[in-house]
Amino acid sequence: MLTLKKVHHIAIICSHYETSKRFYTEVLGFKIVREVYRQERDSYKLDLALQDNYIIELFSFPHPPPRPSRPEACGLRHLAFEVDDVEAAAAALRQKDVITEPVRIDEFTGRKFTFFSDPDGLPLELYER
């Protein structure tokens, strides 16, 4: 029987490594666990943690193809982060020049949420705990 324990990590390919590295570390507050440059692939791999939990592998490649990434496109819909206060978290993002959508209420849970994007347009969500 298959017994999954948890999500181990989420892999993201970015188009501009330094821009995305800055966004995930300085704007969102992820901690760098390890950064490796793979010369044979002309590629970086950045391992990022949130609250000491390994979460994201950020990759760069020389010419990644574009991919539809809006929430209604086929594939990964979005990546959601839990916060205590959506409005305060959205305000903190706006102070760092990150555009957020208006805060909405989940019709099933009654919880507040909003969307924003990473530098490549990957849809990210703040969801109130």
UniProtKB/TrEMBL annotation:
VOC domain location: 6-129
Keywords: Metal-binding
Cited Pfam families: Glyoxalase
MF term (GO), any: metal ion binding
PANTHER family, alphabetized: FOSFOMYCIN RESISTANCE PROTEIN FOSX (PTHR36113:SF6), LYASE, PUTATIVE-RELATED-RELATED (PTHR36113)
Stated name of the protein: VOC family protein
Source species: Chitinophaga lutea
Taxonomy of the source species: Bacteria, Pseudomonadati, Bacteroidota, Chitinophagia, Chitinophagales
